Amino acid sequence: AEAAAEQLRLYRRDPDGWRGCRSTGEVAVSWRPSAEFAGNLYKGEGILPASPQNVWECIKPVAGGLRTKWDQNVKDFEVIEAISDTVSICRTTTPSACMRIISPREFVDVVVMKQYEDGTMLSAATNVEHPLCPPQPNLVRGFNYPCGCFCIPVPG
């Protein structure tokens, strides 16, 4: 979990190579080739007219949290094992997509939540295997490289 958090901090600090691919009035999505795997990294950025604490409540990875209510790509989120107050093993399931051409998925990750001195909040995750969460026969087991969300306060 700590390695995933550090990798996300490195992505955030390194502005090189990001190319814009989509943008609306609220969100800009960029990508760049990954140095870890044969594919691309993606990041979405936006400024919301809300306090960092209210935004964090919507995105933080906790059982019973708001993410399953607003994010159509998250069907369910459960904590398999709490390692500490800030680190847990979690299972996320996603619904099928594209008229069921893409099968439902499940992801098992170690997740860490952090708050930094400047008020930035982070959730970082990466793939793990856990004996209490064997693959389910009706779901495709997904694999996450280091990934997560930053909630960064901005002036005003």
From TrEMBL:
Task: Identify the residues that the record assigns to the START domain, covering every copy.
Answer: 1-156
The record's annotation in Gene3D superfamilies points to: 3.30.530.20
Q: Which GO terms describe its biological process?
A: cholesterol import
Q: Which domain of life is it from?
A: Eukaryota
TM ranges are none
Q: Which PANTHER family match?
A: PROTEIN CBG07384, STAR-RELATED LIPID TRANSFER PROTEIN 5
Q: What's this protein's name?
A: STAR5 protein
The organism's lineage? Eukaryota, Metazoa, Chordata, Craniata, Vertebrata
